[in-house]
Amino acid sequence: MLQLYWKNATGKVVGPENGITPTDLSTIEGPLKRAHKAVVTASREGKLGYAALPGNTEYKQQVQTLVDRYKDNTTDMVLLGIGGSALGNIALQTALNPSTYNLQTDRRRKGPRLYVLDNVDPVLVGDVLKQVSRRLGTTLFNVISKSGETAETASQFMIVRDILRKKLRGNWADRIVATTDMEKGTLHDIAKTDGFAMLPVPGDVGGRFSVLSPVGLFSAAMCNIDIDELLAGAEAMRQRVEVMDIMQNPATILAAIKYIAYTEKNKSMHVMMPYSNRLYMLADWYRQLWAESLGKQFDRDGNEIFTGPTPIKALGATDQHSQVQLYREGPNDKLTVFLDVKKHPRDIRIPDDFESIPGLTYLRKQRLSKLLACEKEATEYAMVVSQRPSVTITFPEINAKHIGEFLYLYEFTTSIMGELMNINAYDQPAVELGKQATFALMNREGYEDMAAKIRPYQRKDKRYLV
């Protein structure tokens, strides 16, 4: 199981100004227990949609039914989505399949190539569509949108639908799966009319919490990721984090450290730094989860608070040569969460060579896994010397079960943070204005007043052009 090690975030190691002290923990004990109880109660009463996902056999069966229908006749899968409809899928694919997955032969890959169109960059979209253009009949497009009106996903869908109708004619609708609201909405209505296969976007699960729903499970299962183990890992973590002993609970400890670091130690930047390329996109998933859930202007009582720790991603050992200079000698405003791996999916030994060159002899016959582990411990030590707090989450190995554990741990920790901060961790009101402004700028009917408000900002003042 995953383990959390937090000694290097304590005042004993990095000093009381920057680290968590017994007094800090004593002060937060009451609020932390109340926050934990509130989240557990909401979970058990069915008020937290994401909390029920690990045990939802209906969703898993719906996913498996479509996998059985499509897997053997699909060479390529293109996912159309953005934000929570894409980041979890990317994180699962990157963590649990080789980086060369799409380059492997069909026999070795045993699943379709996967492309995720998580942006409307015309080059990205055009390149992927060109790549699959000769295999449209065996390419499956999974469009993921609860409403179907998200501009980015809707535009991609319209392009794909048009291409399929023109190229495949009669059976074109069979190459689209719509993951959407099963009762209403624009995409729901189009899917029903056109005859697309459908999967549900749970109505009670926000996009950034949806990776363990059909939103994330379908592409994972299509690409040979063991979703049974993924959900089993999440369920195992669910049981761990509902334990009432807060000092033996990884979610309450992690939330306490993050909350105290943010509110009492001036650590407004929360870095996630995996020492594994496979885990790097988990940091992208975390950034959305943390930013949208905790970045809020108002608390639950309507007070203006402008709160939220800023999530940052880094990669070990790569960013030891870029970001760590800032982390050690720049503002002491960061808490770092290292992701460590005990056993990597593969390893490579350095050759027994250059025995006569003193600067290289220490590398002879060593394994890259050992070098990477030493890099992590060296960075951890350097941060301690500079009184920069950190914690480590250790994966015994990278597999579906432990990824499931990690996903649920961070979702539950986010809920506890929301309670401690007295905010709604499940809405994202600030995102809406940008969406509405996009509608206005694209001349969507009904948004004329907003377009008029935006117009003055569109005019370029030549005094500021250089």
Architecture blueprint of SSEs:
Blueprint lengths: L2 E3 L5 H4 L7 H23 L12 H14 L5 E5 L6 H10 L9 H4 L3 E5 L4 H11 L6 E6 L6 H17 L8 E5 L5 H9 L2 E4 L13 H9 L4 H15 L8 H14 L5 E6 L5 H15 L1 E3 L5 E4 L2 E4 L10 H6 L4 E10 L24 H18 L4 E8 L2 H22 L7 H13 L6 H11 L8
Parallel strand pairs: 2-3, 2-4, 4-5, 5-6, 7-10, 7-11, 11-12
Antiparallel strand pairs: 1-12, 8-9
Helix pairs in contact: 2-11, 2-15, 3-9, 4-9, 4-12, 10-15, 11-15, 12-15, 16-17
Walkthrough of the structure:
The chain has helices spanning 11-14, 22-44, 57-70, 87-96, 106-109, 122-132, 151-167, 186-194, 214-222, 227-241, 250-263, 280-294, 324-329, 368-385, 400-421, 429-441, 448-458, and strands spanning 3-5, 76-80, 113-117, 139-144, 176-180, 197-200, 269-274, 296-298, 304-307, 310-313, 334-343, 390-397. The chain is α/β, with parallel strands linked by helices and 466 residues long. The longest helix is centred in the first third of the chain and has 23 residues, at 22-44. The protein is 46% helix and 14% strand. The protein has 17 helices and 12 strands. It has 3 domains: 3-42 and 230-421, 3-Layer(aba) Sandwich (Rossmann fold); 53-228, Glucose-6-phosphate isomerase like protein, domain 1 (Rossmann fold), CATH 3.40.50.10490; 432-464, no CATH class.
